[in-house]
Write a structure and sequence with these properties.
Radius of gyration: 27 Å
Shape: globular
Structural class: alpha+beta
Helix content: 10-25%
Number of helices: 4
CATH class of one domain: Mainly Alpha
Largest sheet: 6 strands, antiparallel
CATH architecture of one domain: Orthogonal Bundle
Distance between the termini: 89 Å
Amino acid sequence: MSALQPPALVCASRSPSETGVREVAKVLRLLDDALDELSVYYKTLPIPPPVRVSSYGKKSSSGKHANSTATSRFPSSDAARFPHWTSFRIGESEFTLAYQRRFPGETDYERTVFLAKMTSESIMPPDRDVVVKFTHRYSERGHRHLADNDLAPTLHHCAYVESVGMWVVVMDVVEGRTAHKGNKLSAEQGKSLRHAVELLHAKGLVFGDLREPNVIFKPNAVCLIDFEWCGPCEDVDGKGLGVRYPTDVAMGSDYDWAEGVGPDEFIRKAHDLYRLEQICGA
């Protein structure tokens, strides 16, 4: 028999629970150090002076006209409230963006949408109103295909920006009214919407989020917006590589989805066709 090793020479190992506790302790220590650094950083930031906004002429809660001055440290036009991403290039041409305001009614935490003024010496007129969208997923292919057929806004930029950590999409503002449940499409508008879906399906793409808020009425046609869910259809190759619904897709009778729609389920052409009939048959 071999002699036992002296205790001092035995390599002691830690149990999995001990190892886990030590790793968690390291993370907590790093977080504590980070909080200290953030505290020091924010204490050195200058506090902006209050901005006095006159409310003369507005009615108070009593119904009488008020003549007072409100104070706010963060006016809606403050540049700090807008993204730092303000320029992009197309070939040799550079385009700059001046953000105007956040898009009205936009509350989706997965994306942020702004109205902006795009300026460049290479376009006529040299500035135009655009929509700038920051989102975690987007189908440039689907958007450009419909834009080439006047069925989606003109697309100026669509790329993943590492400094933002999101896709940044710049497109023209589309004049028109958004469809709502109960709106009746004209024969021309219905034909236009069907044509848009057919064009996507012919390219092996599905739209996915074919709901009324994503359909803009023009006089004799429609325009589709929001291509976040658009992508390759599973039916193209049968390999399970098609686009899927988000895991947090809103369900319920109010949305009137087709059978088979659900979190992380494949988006199928049949789902688009079902929603198409719901909108055109309203």
